Amino acid sequence: MEKQITALQISHILGEDYPRGWVESLIEIPKKEKFGDAAFPCFALAKSMRKSPAVIAGEIAARLKHPVFDSVEVQSGYINIFFDRAFITEHTLNQVLEDPGAYGSHTFGEGKNAVFDMSSPNIAKPFSMGHLRSTVIGNALANLVEKCGYQAVKVNYIGDYGTQFGKLLAAYTRWGDPKVVEEDPIKELTKLYVTFHEEAEEEPALIEEGREWFKKLEAQDPEALLLWNWFREASLQEFDTLYEMLGVDFDLTRGEAYYTDKMEPVIQQLEDKGLLEKSEGADVVQLDESMPPCLIRKSNGTTTYATRDLAAAIDRYQSYPFEKSLYVVGNEQTLHFNQIKQVLKKAGFEWADRMEHVSFGMILQDGQKMSTRKGKTVLLEEVLEEAVDQALMNIKEKNPDLMNPEETARQVGVGAVIFHDLKQDRRHDIEFSLEDMLTFEGNTGPYLQYTHARACSLLRKGGFSPEDSKTAGGDPESWSLVKMMRAFPEVTASACSTNDPSKAARYLLDLGRSFNQYYAKSKIIGSPTQQENLTLVYAFTVVMKEGLRLLGMAAPEHM
Ligand SMILES: NC(=[NH2+])NCCC[C@H](N)C(=O)O
């Protein structure tokens, strides 16, 4: 906010040739305190004003006045502005404490829908690392858009359709044992699927058998349908255990199969609009030179992944006219989503521009993709359990008297995995390392949660209660922390608008560091301004807790 005020003042002094937005883009936030809280470099003005930057800086500085400015200095072409700390501190604390849960909220999304296609695992297959990323990133973004006023609609678009289910049905009817499937459905079904592929190399006729089964499924053959339903329900149940652990829920679990009878009308529309072309017996829509045509119907008459996504996009727009529709899916599907978008655009759906592929990289282990195929299965549930176990060990070591250590360990272990994902630029591949995720020092989830818990324990020690808050007259040592808390609303807005939860995650690391620095430097309890200091600590817990909530993490008060 001070940045805008500063820009407005400078722009006002310079006149209309230098608009506020332009001035604001030049303003820097100095790293060193001695250069002020904001700095304006005058070098870009030298040419048009035909004066040296130092002279210009002097002239502007002489006229720069506002209640939030405490002092203004000129240093070699820069104007360094120092804000009125007491004024801003009080204002910030009042804002945070006025309505704690609402601090950092915005209204710009009000009355608008944001639809999320997220998680979307495939039934009868293990929940992969990619699906974990989609779940975690999608959930954080959904929280962020809601923070900005949007209505989030979280859709779990499960992969419950397609030729692979023909193969699975073929494999099951040949080799499956209902009891074994019942016991550990995903594991057994995956095995059957792998067996199918191995056997098919010896016996190519199997492939045909798989196709036949898929045709039966499409024709709603009772036996096929019964088995498919069973596999589906059993898989969803296993996924639910994971979602519960992660603390994620959905507004809608609606998979590809839901669109079985909604594709024909879409294909008809494409036909009517003259977009459908025959290509080697298949129906395709030609796209611009940058991509291959989109396959709508294969030569054997079956529909595709793309056809279902087209039907789903149209259906979503009809049910939830959206301002944005985000597909939180790995990088490897970029071409697919570009194709879908372009087909819809060609068909005249202007809203296709509001669809966005929120892509992300892979999770690597020792530089290689963590795979769920063949022998190398890494089961996500085991990963999370391992994280929780290790968190429990860490916690017991640090705080042997903690009540309810299991619940806290769950919050910390799961939080560690979530944060490790969210702190990085989502488009990059990330290296998986439980050790790195779980340390209490460094850029981790546990570090943030621990910092928050320490602050809570200070409040308990000081017998603080929010009703006794004192927002004026705080400790000057708190300035960096105050500025950090002040930045929160800007961070939520920008993380939301750029679909980038890492902005919020990295901000929380900075916030945590600011708090720990303040804590190290100040005598909080027992100082003459104890109540003011504790008010600040309390405000910090409010912002940290809300930040963690947005990322999908818990903020335990004891650790
Ligand atoms: N609308 C979509 N295509 N969403 C992504 C689905 C992801 C797919 N089930 C997979 O695991 O690869």
What keyword list fits this structure?
3-stranded antiparallel β-sheet; Gyrase A, domain 2; binds arginine; 5-stranded parallel β-sheet; Isoleucyl-tRNA Synthetase, Domain 1
* Known CATH architecture of the domain at 379-551: Orthogonal Bundle
Strand content: 5-15%
If you consult CATH, what is the topology of the domain at 379-551? Isoleucyl-tRNA Synthetase, Domain 1
Distance between the termini: 35 Å
Number of beta-strand segments = 14
Radius of gyration: 28 Å
Number of helices: 22
Shape: globular
- Based on secondary structure, the structural category is alpha/beta
Any low-confidence stretches, pLDDT <50, length ≥5? none
Specify the CATH homologous superfamily of the domain at 379-551. Isoleucyl-tRNA Synthetase, Domain 1
Describe the structure in your own words.
- The protein contains 22 helices and 14 strands.
- With 559 residues, the chain is an alpha/beta fold.
- Among the domains are: 2-83, Gyrase A, domain 2 (2-Layer Sandwich); 162-233, no CATH class; 379-551, Isoleucyl-tRNA Synthetase, Domain 1.
- The strands form four sheets. Strands 6-5-4-10-11 form a five-stranded parallel sheet. Strands 1-3-2 form a three-stranded antiparallel sheet. A three-stranded antiparallel sheet has the order 7-8-9.
- Strand 2 (69-75) and strand 3 form a beta hairpin.
- Helix 6 (129-147) crosses helix 20, helix 7 packs across helix 10 (205-218) and helix 18 packs antiparallel against helix 22.
- The radius of gyration is 28 Å and the shape is globular.
- The site of arginine has 8 residues, from strand 10.
